[in-house]
Amino acid sequence: xxxxxxxxxxxxxxxxPQSWPxxxxxxxxxxxxxxxxxxxxxxxxxxxxxxVERSRAGKVGTAxxxxxxxLKLLPKAVCLLNFSLLGCVFLGIAFLGIGLWAxxxxxxxxxISSITDLGGFDPVWLFLVVGGVMFILGFxxxxxxxxxxxxxxxxxxxxxxIIFFLxxxxxxxxxxxxxxxxxxxxxxxxNNIRAYRDDIDLQNLxxxxxxxxQCCGAFGADDWNLNIYFNCTDxxxxxxxxxxxxxxxxxxxxxxxINTQCGYDARQKPExxxxxxxxTKGCVPQFExxxxxxxxxxxxIFIGIALLQIFGICLAQxxxxxxxxxRASW
Length: 330
What we know:
It comes from Bos taurus (Bovine). By secondary structure, the chain is mainly α. Helix content is 60%, strand content 0%. It has helices at residues 2-11, 23-34, 49-60, 75-105, 124-146, 150-176, 178-194, 200-213, 271-277, 283-293, 295-329. Helix 6 packs antiparallel against helix 11 (295-329). The longest helix is centred in the last third of the chain and has 35 residues, at 295-329. It is elongated, with a radius of gyration of 33 Å. It starts with a helix and ends with a helix.
């Protein structure tokens, strides 16, 4: 390419690099021809790395070494960040896919207005919200680090900082206002008991909770009077009247098949007999007991998540500083 330029310049009566009076001019053309980060030149006129550095020094007033570690932008940290954020992107896509698939199976996507029809909590929202947050964070951090985009990296650190602040605030409020949190949990469980038969995902979530913590209702089995199928009123013609879901039943190790009718008429029996057939403790007290028994594990998980978030924020800010420092040196 250089020889072709020389031939054209000579044929038009122009000057060639040999006729330039200023070596700095030749160095500057070499810099433009080779590129700002290349140390090897295809030109036959000894456009060396030193010349490129002299040209750059004459252009910006300071010489920049090509061995400057700042130019590498912490490659190990970038790789670590990219791999972890890439995992967040794929997990986010997976969670979003599961949530959308669940809504499609329930016909929500064909009738968007049915989202607000459910009286209780739809567990699909967990997948959609968590998946959406993971995808946004992973995409912004990964693309920002790969493309050295300071806007995306700043967005990543600010978004992650907001999540960390909300988690910290929720933890402090839960510790200070224990009674209020207990009342809200009681209200939340009872509200979902009313909608137990309205959504299969909510039903599975309640059954899993009651089986895992060996509980029934928010504070006892009588909370199931709030459900139109399980209440004990005389007007209730349901076969499940004065009963509880099968997840409230005590498990018999000898049974291989779950008896889904084990809770029928369970609350019509005396309380002493009820304790043999079903769990009589509420899920709120059982959850408190579980939290106290596993406080160290739960605290360790939250501290680990917080440290990962702080590490991500600091690493993103460090990358932003390095990128801006390198750009300022040009």
